[in-house]
Each structure stands twice: as structure tokens, then as C-alpha cells.
Amino acid sequence: xxxxxxxxxxxxxxxxxxxxxxxxxxxxxxxxxxxxxxxxxxxxxxxxxxxxxxxxxxxxxxxxxxxxxxxxxxxxxxxxxxxxxxxxxxxxxxxxxxxxxxxxxxxxxxxxxxxxxxxxxxxxxxxxxxxxxxxxxxxxxxxxxxxxxxxxxxxxxxxxxxxxxxxxxxxxxxxxxxxxxxxxxxxxxxxxxxxxxxxxxxxxxxxxxxxxxxxxxxxxxxxxxxxxxxxxxxxxxxxxxxxxxxxxxxxxxxxxxxxxxxxxx
Length: 265
What we know:
Distance between the termini: 64 Å
Order of helices and strands: HEEEHEEHHEEEEEEE
């Protein structure tokens, strides 16, 4: 039985890469261009989306993780992610996120502030990825989120692609607090970026296995993420619970996941 010639194998590989990575990204870009409208960042919508519970009527501690399409052309490829937390009895939320513009003014990339927890991201409606409510156990997780954010290793660095960026920050915290079991969307470019001296880690969900070379090529096998392949910062894969396709540019194609974890006392 003859083997296929090397040239034919290369053609087959190129066809698979095009089908899995290039075609979805092209579709995502086309969809974005059809719906994108010129918006001035100074006047873009930043009000509440109504996804966060009213802190004045919610005595429980709350942890939420959000994702929203990035501003302008970046939104064709990826999302911006952030944490919003409220301790037991608190009457306001604290946001944890990374924004690169702070570095241009001599500040840090990490922002810890009291902004609107569920705000539109420059006109783009956020999606709730994870929510956890409860008492002392959730308060303890909030303390660990705060500690991890303040020890983020790239506080003085920011790079849109392949990282470290806002999604690298959220993935870092998620690994430090695996109880969140956070499955970041395939459009969270930068989530797979690992320190330059590391190529092996747990997945962002805190379980399973991740191999990554500078966020440019890698593999994830984990209960939450399923199987993901990272190529040049783009992610494609299969989720098993519930079953879904994960495609670059387009995101998750399949039944929505429940963002709520069981209440924790």
C-alpha cells in the first residue's frame, strides 16, 4: 500500500487549517463589518446592561466574569474580559481588568476600580460567563481574586496579540482560583499566553492540561474547556459539556452554558 506523497499531505493539512481557522475568522470579520458602525470611544455606550444584581438589594457576596466584543476592528477577532465582585453586605462592586492605555501614562495595566460591573464595552453588550453567589466561602474567593490581581506578573506589559492582554489577566486569575471553573470563550485571544519560561500549565479553568509556546501554538485538554487547539492566537476546538464547536472569530457554536455555579455558603 503506497503512502501519499508529501505534497499531497501538505495540501490536505492546508485544507484542514483553512476549514478550521481561516473560514470561521473570515465569517467573523464579515459579520463584524456588516454590523459595525463608526463610534467615537468618548461617546460609545458604557451604561449598565442589567446583568448584575442590584448591590443595595443583594446582601450575598457576588462574583461575576464578563466578556464583550472588543472595540472597533478588534471586535472582529476577539473579546475583552473582566471580573466584577461584591463582598457580603457591600453596596457597590469592584471591577478587575487590564487596559493597555494606563501604561502610556506611566501607570499600570491592571485596573481595580468601582466602575459599573456589567457596563457595555464601548457599545458592545457583555455576556455573563460565570456567576457565583453565597456567603463566607465566596468572600474568601473574592479575597483570593484580589490577591491574584495584585500579583499579576505582567502589570507593566500589554500587547494585543498574542498577549499579555486583558484575557491573559483573567486567565491568570482563573488559574489561581480554580474553584471558579472558568471556561473562557475561544474569542478570548491572549488567554493561552504563558510566561516565556513556561510551556506547560493547567488550563485557565484550573483543571486539565495546557501546552503553549508563547500563546502562538498550543493545546488544551480539560473537563471545562474540552479540547482546544491554539494556532497563532486563534482557538478552535470541541466542548463536551454541553456539546459545542469552538471557532475563532465566531465563538462558541452550540447550546449556551449556565454561568451560575452552585451557591456556596
